[in-house]
Amino acid sequence: MERLCGSLLIVLFFVCGASGFAFDWPSDQAVMVSNFGKSDGGRPMLGDTFRSEGALTTIEKGEIIYSRGVSAPASRFPSPLGNMLVVDHGDGLLSIYSRMAHLRTKPESLMDPGTAIAVSGLSGWSKTEGFYLSIFDRKERRWVNPSLIIPVIPDTRSPLIRSVKLKDNANQIIDLATTRTVRQGAYTILVHADVPRIKPSEPPLMPLRIICSVNGIEADYLAFETFSAHDGALMMFRNGLVPTSQIYTYNPAVETGSVFFNRGQVTLEIIVQSSMVLSTSAASATANGTVPNSHSAVYRLIVE
Question: Is 271 in contact with 211 (CB distance < 8 Å)?
Fold first, then answer.
């Protein structure tokens, strides 16, 4: 089966490359507070939250197709997104800016790259002054991780693997930190991994991918790259589309893969990859194609 990331990169090549887009972050002094895929009460975040002050700019040229400010009639009804703008960049790609203090533009405005559109602040369900950025692909009807199409800043901090556990068919949980002997059979792999911050007081971020391999052969692959809706359920890719409600059941761990262990010695390796934007202060100078940081943990198991 082809990986979703392969097809996604092809789509993004045509959208971002062939269309002549040069995406950049809305602020050059923002700090990421939470990111795409991070659990929010057992549901994944569909965008990135930043702490920032001052003006925000559009990530690329486009047309504002929707705006909602404090003076709009709809603002009488509470919204988790607060003040918001939606910019159409063509080829079905939308950028959505929300939870800002106030807007600076009018609907149907044609925007050049770097045009000021709003001011960071508090609105909607904001917990900190800043803004919330999400990207939606209308052609494929899916939310896209902004770090996949906006140049990222290389991060020297490797992700951490905090725990790896197995769940058997009887829903019993086996912690591989204390147990290395298991019975033959099928298991679900639960991984708690994140990207640490410089300040201990700041919450960690979500990695980009988690890969499981058994005896050196990739067995499963969880990608925090896109989320899509199918039959009323939010789905993500893990060797096929899987409901996010299943992936995030054991929060803060995520259901990373399914494996079958035969009797004998088995080597299970968990690889966590991160390609994060911890700050946007150098975003305009960063090139595409950043190689993600990675961290792995190897467990040598005896299967009875």
Answer: yes
Whose CA is closest to 148, among 138, 135, 161, 139?
135
DSSP string over 107-164:
TT-EE-TT-EEEE-B--TT-SSSEEEEEEEETTTTEEE-GGGTSPPPP--SPPEEEEE
Residue type, 71: S
Number of CB atoms found within 10 A of residue 54's CB:
12
Can you count the helices (H) and strands (E) in the chain?
Answer: 2, 24
Amino acid at 124: G
Residue type present at position 245? S
| Residues 150 and 59: beta-carbon distance below 8 Å | yes
The residues pairing with 17 across neighbouring beta strands, listed in sequence order, are none
Tell me the domain boundaries of the chain: 4-148, 160-303
Q: What's the whole-number mean pLDDT along residues 20-27?
A: 76
| Tally of CB atoms within 10 A around 120 | 25
Nearest-angstrom CA–CA distance, 154 and 190: 27
Please state whether 202 falls in left (phi above 0), alpha (psi between -120 and 50) or beta: beta
Record the pTM: 0.84
* Cβ-based neighbours of 64, under 8 Å, separated by 6 or more: 85, 86, 87, 88, 105, 106, 107, 108, 109, 111, 117
pLDDT per residue as tens digits for the range 59-116: 999 999 988 875 555 455 556 778 889 999 999 999 999 988 888 876 667 888 888 8
Residue-level length of the chain: 304
Cβ–Cβ under 8 Å, residues 82 and 124: yes
Residue 14 CA to residue 137 CA, distance in Å, equals: 13
Pick one of 1.10.472.80, 3.40.50.2300, 2.70.70.10, 3.30.70.1050 as the CATH number of 4-148: 2.70.70.10
